[in-house]
Specification:
Distance between the termini: 57 Å
Strand content: 35-45%
Strand order of the largest sheet: 2-11-14-13-12-15
Helix content: 25-40%
CATH architecture of the largest domain: Beta Barrel
Largest sheet: 6 strands, antiparallel, barrel
CATH topology of the largest domain: conserved putative lor/sdh protein from methanococcus maripaludis s2 fold
Structural class: alpha+beta
CATH class of the largest domain: Mainly Beta
Shape: elongated
Oligomer: single chain
Order of helices and strands: HEEEEEEHHEEEEEEEEEHHEEEEEE
Number of helices: 5
Length: 434
C-alpha cells in the first residue's frame, strides 16, 4: 500500500513540474513582443538599368597653341566667341621674327655672291690649266727633238698637274657655295614660316570654351606648344563620357537608348544613344571602369562642357509582372536555425537558398544573386509563412517574381520586410503581430 502511494506521489510531482515548465515557457513567450513590418506585393513594370556618372564633352575639342615664342600682341576672340576656320584669333609680336627673316635673306645674298666668286675662281683655274698644258706640250716636243732639256719638261709637267688640281678645287668650291645658297634659302623658309606662325588662326568652326592668355603675356614654345584657346567644334552635338563599372560593361551595347540628368537642370531628363564602349580601362582604388561614349543633341546649348552627368542605361524591361520589394528578400526572421528548418520542412522547402543578395542592391549596384529566394508572408493569425520563389530582374527597389516554387504569393499580399522584437512589461499581455 505504501509503495503505491509513493508512485502516485512521484507521478503528481512530475506532472506538477511539467505544468510549471509549460507555464514558465508561456510566460516567457508572452513576455516577448514581435512586431512585423510589411509591404504589399505589386504588379507592374520593372526596368533593369546600369547606373553611371560621367562628364559632358564636345565631340571635337581642339587645343589651339603657339609654335613660336613671343609676346601676345592681339586677341581677336574671347570666351564663348564663335569662330570660323582660318579666322585670325590671335597675333604674336612679329618684330623679332621679322629681323630673323631679314638676316636669313641677307645670308642668302651673301651665299649667292660666294657662288659668283667661286665660279670666277674656277674660270681662272681653267685658264691657268690651259696655259700650263700648252707649255707642257711644247716642252715635250722640244725634248723629243733633243732641243729642250729634261728638267724643263719635268717642270712643265709639274705645273700642268698643279693646274689640274687647282681646277678641281675651284669646281668643288663652286658646289660648296651653291650648297650654302640652298642652306640659307632653307633658313629663309624657316624664318618666314615662323613669322607666319605669329598669326594664329582657328583650325575649325566652333566656339571658344577657354582662353588661357592675355594681351602682353609672353608665351614660350621651347619645350611644348602653349595652349592659347580651346575651341569646341559644335556644342549643339555633344557627348557624355560615362564611367561604367567592369561588372556592367557586358550588358551595354552600341545603339542603346540612354537617359541622364545634370545638376544644373535637376528636373529635366536628357536623352542620348550609346555610340561606343571604349576598351581602355581606368583603375582608381582597385575599381576598374570603362568609358561609354553617349551621343546626344544639345540644340538649345543648355549643357556645357565639363558638366557632371548621372547616366541611366536601361538593359532590360518586363511588364505586367509580380514584383516584390527588395527589403522583403533581405528579411531574416528572428527565429533560431532549428525553428527555420522546421518551417521549411513544413512548407516543403528543401533548404535555404544561397545568400548572395537575392536580388537586393548593394551600394547602388546589383550584385550576383541566387536564382531563387525565400520570402516571408504574414498570415491572418499573426504568424509568418515562408514562400520560395524564382527571381527575375531588379530595378534596385523591386525584383521580379518569375515563378512561385513553394507556397503562394500574388499582388496585394503582405510580405514581411522587417521585425521588431521587444520585452513586454506586464505578464499576460499579448504581443502585437502585424
Amino acid at each position: 500500500m505504501s509503495k503505491r502511494l509513493t508512485r502516485r506521489h512521484w507521478l503528481i510531482i512530475v506532472s506538477v513540474l511539467i505544468l510549471a515548465a509549460i507555464a514558465a515557457s508561456a510566460l516567457i513567450r508572452r513576455g516577448d513582443t514581435t512586431q512585423y513590418l510589411t509591404a504589399k506585393v505589386q504588379e507592374g513594370e520593372i526596368r533593369d538599368a546600369v547606373e553611371a556618372s560621367g562628364t559632358v564633352n564636345a565631340v571635337i575639342n581642339v587645343q589651339v597653341g603657339s609654335q613660336v615664342s613671343g609676346t601676345i600682341a592681339k586677341l581677336n576672340a574671347d570666351f564663348n566667341s564663335r569662330v570660323h576656320k582660318d579666322e585670325i584669333i590671335a597675333e604674336i609680336d612679329p618684330r623679332l621674327l621679322q629681323g630673323a627673316l631679314l638676316q636669313a635673306s641677307a645670308d642668302v645674298q651673301n651665299a649667292k655672291a660666294n657662288v659668283v666668286a667661286a665660279k670666277a675662281n674656277l674660270s681662272k683655274a681653267r685658264a691657268g690649266l690651259a696655259q700650263t698644258k700648252a707649255e707642257f706640250d711644247r716642252a715635250r716636243v722640244l725634248t723629243q727633238k733633243d732641243i729642250g732639256s729634261q728638267s724643263a719638261l719635268d717642270l712643265a709637267k709639274a705645273n700642268y698637274e698643279s693646274a689640274k688640281a687647282a681646277v678641281d678645287a675651284a669646281a668643288a668650291s663652286v658646289v660648296q657655295a651653291e650648297a650654302q645658297v640652298s642652306q640659307k634659302e632653307a633658313a629663309v623658309a624657316v624664318a618666314r614660316t615662323n613669322l607666319n606662325y605669329t598669326i594664329i588662326r582657328s583650325p575649325i568652326d566652333g566656339t571658344v570654351v577657354a582662353r588661357n592668355v592675355d594681351v602682353g603675356q609672353t608665351v614660350a614654345a621651347s619645350l611644348q606648344a602653349p595652349t592659347i584657346f580651346a575651341i569646341a567644334q559644335d556644342l549643339a552635338k555633344m557627348q557624355v563620357y560615362a564611367k561604367v563599372d567592369e561588372s556592367d560593361v557586358g550588358r551595354i551595347r552600341k545603339g542603346q537608348e540612354v537617359t541622364f540628368k545634370v545638376d544644373a537642370f535637376p528636373k529635366e531628363l536628357f536623352k542620348g544613344t550609346v555610340s561606343q564602349l571604349r576598351m581602355n580601362p581606368t583603375t582608381i582604388s582597385n575599381v576598374v571602369t570603362y568609358d561609354a561614349v553617349i551621343d546626344f543633341a544639345n540644340p538649345d546649348l543648355k549643357l556645357f562642357p565639363g558638366m557632371t552627368a548621372y547616366v541611366t542605361i536601361p538593359v532590360d524591361t518586363v511588364e505586367n509582372v509580380v514584383k516584390l520589394p527588395n527589403a522583403a528578400l533581405r528579411f531574416k526572421p528572428p527565429l533560431s536555425p532549428e525553428e527555420v528548418r522546421v518551417l521549411y520542412a513544413k512548407y516543403g522547402i528543401e533548404s535555404e537558398p544561397a545568400e548572395k543578395g537575392a536580388g537586393a542592391p548593394a551600394g547602388g549596384r546589383r550584385e550576383a544573386r541566387a536564382e531563387r529566394a525565400v520570402l516571408w508572408q504574414l498570415r491572418a493569425d499573426g504568424t509568418i509563412e515562408p514562400v520560395e520563389v524564382a527571381l527575375g530582374i531588379t530595378d534596385h527597389a523591386y525584383t521580379e517574381v518569375r515563378k512561385v516554387l513553394r507556397g503562394a504569393v500574388k499582388p496585394g499580399d503582405e510580405v514581411v520586410t522587417s521585425a521588431i522584437t521587444s520585452k513586454s512589461a506586464p505578464p499576460g499581455v499579448q504581443g502585437v503581430r502585424r
